């Protein structure tokens, strides 16, 4: 038995301070998880249940590679996010057990074709083409939780060409990381290798070709991406 075509490459992320790679299974993203961002997008953040969308695992951009400005948009937005990588999985995980599934953390960008997403919202259509396009998820090396410890309160910010555009703290998440893992595991069975982009704070805006994006979460390796 052989594959009829060459099997696709396994998506994987660099690990900070290691030659090993973290293999990626699925990439989940949380929508509107900071109150001020929910308001800037025209929504009431008063704890409506979390909701999720996905990006393909091969949309990840690693190793400080440039991100090509994508086709079919003239309104590409940056969303800086804390990313959680899972070493364990399961369904219906209690909040109290959710942190035990975490392998590590990374700084990521949920790049968004806002015009495409806006049209999908208006038409009641899926968000996939607004969110899950090629190379839509630049991400920095993962740090194992065995080295960082649990991260619950840390500054998160994004600079574009040296100017602060987004700034907040993880303690402002509407749904905490364990609450998010627990809720998501009631919708799908989670597994080792899954990533969760935990949502972006306020200050999302358009970027253009030539912009340099510099993302940060306290205690993690910064993310540096150039749009080309
Ligand atoms: Mn996002």
Tell me about this structure.
- It is built from six helices and 16 strands.
- The N and C termini lie far apart (42 Å).
- It has one domain (12-226): Alpha-Beta Complex (Fumarylacetoacetate hydrolase, domain 2).
- The chain is of the alpha+beta class and 228 residues long.
- The chain is globular, with a radius of gyration of 17 Å.
- The protein binds manganese (II) ion (MN).
- Manganese (II) ion binds at residues 29, 79, 81, 110, 197, 199-200.
- Residues 29, 79, 81, 110, 197, 199-200 line the site of manganese (II) ion.
Uncertain segments are none
Quaternary class: single chain
**What is the distance, rounded to the nearest whole angstrom, between the alpha carbons of the first and last residues?**
42 Å
Name of the CATH first level? Alpha Beta
Order of helices and strands: EEEHEEEEHEEHHEEHEEHEEE
Question: What structural class should be given to the helix and strand makeup?
Answer: alpha+beta
Fold topology:
Elements: E1 12-14, E2 21-23, E3 27-31, H1 35-40, E4 51-55, E5 60-61, E6 76-77, E7 80-86, H2 95-98, E8 102-109, E9 112-113, H3 114-123, H4 128-131, E10 137-138, E11 143-144, H5 145-148, E12 155-160, E13 163-169, H6 177-184, E14 195-197, E15 212-217, E16 223-226
Parallel strand pairs: 3-14, 5-10
Antiparallel strand pairs: 1-2, 3-4, 6-9, 7-8, 7-14, 8-11, 12-13, 12-15, 15-16
The structure holds manganese (II) ion.
Manganese (II) ion binds next to loops.
């Amino acid at each position: 038995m052989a594959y009829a075509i060459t099997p696709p490459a396994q998506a994987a992320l660099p690990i900070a301070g290691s030659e090993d790679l973290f293999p990626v299974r699925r990439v989940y993203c949380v929508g509107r998880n900071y109150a001020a961002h929910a308001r800037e997008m025209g929504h009431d953040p008063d704890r409506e249940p979390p909701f999720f969308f996905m990006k393909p695992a091969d949309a990840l951009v690693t190793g400080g590679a440039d991100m090509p400005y994508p086709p079919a948009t003239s309104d590409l937005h940056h969303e800086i996010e804390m990313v959680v990588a899972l070493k364990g999985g399961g369904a219906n995980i209690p909040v109290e057990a959710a942190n035990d599934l975490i392998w590590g953390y990374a700084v990521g960008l949920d790049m968004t074709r806002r015009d495409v997403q806006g049209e999908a919202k208006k038409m009641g259509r899926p968000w996939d083409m607004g969110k899950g396009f090629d190379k839509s998820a630049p991400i920095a090396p993962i740090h194992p939780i065995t080295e960082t410890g649990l991260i619950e309160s840390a500054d998160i910010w994004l600079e574009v060409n040296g100017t602060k555009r987004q700034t907040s703290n993880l303690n402002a998440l509407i749904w905490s990381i364990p609450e998010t893992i627990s809720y998501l595991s009631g919708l799908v069975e989670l597994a080792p290798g899954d990533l969760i982009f935990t949502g972006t704070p306020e200050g999302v805006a358009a970027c253009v070709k030539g912009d340099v994006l510099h993302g940060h979460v306290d205690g993690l390796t910064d993310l540096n991406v150039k749009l080309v």
